Amino acid sequence: MGMHEDKGIKFHMNASVDSAVPSSSDSSTVGGIKLKDGTILEADVVIVAVGIGPATEFLKESGFHLEKDGSLKVDKHMRVNGVQDVYATGDIATFPYVQQGDKDLRIEHWDVAINHGRVVANHIVKGDSHEGYTSTAYFWSAQGSQLRYCGTTAIQGFDDVIIQGNTDPKDPKFSGFYVKDGKVIAVVGIGTDPTVSLSAELLYGTISHIII
Question: 96 preceded by cis ω (within 30°)?
Answer without folding.
Answer: no
